[in-house]
Write a structure and sequence with these properties.
The protein is an all-alpha fold. It has two helices and no strands. The protein has one domain. The longest helix is centred in the first third of the chain and has 21 residues.
């Protein structure tokens, strides 16, 4: 349990996590299409199903 990388190791790990998260979002756009609007009154007008909400 003594894993403590150097600052460059932390940076590399952060890049890997960021790339993986980006991959997940790009592979599942329908699951993430409303994420930018969470906590707001805004809607994404690009999707017709939002008009009934």
């Amino acid at each position: 349990m003594g894993f403590h990388p150097s600052p460059l190791g932390y940076y590399s790990l952060a890049l890997a996590f960021g790339n993986y998260i980006d991959y997940i979002i790009r592979q599942n756009p329908e699951d993430f299409r409303k994420m930018a609007f969470v906590g707001t009154e805004l809607i994404n007008i690009s999707y017709p199903d939002n008009f009934g909400e």
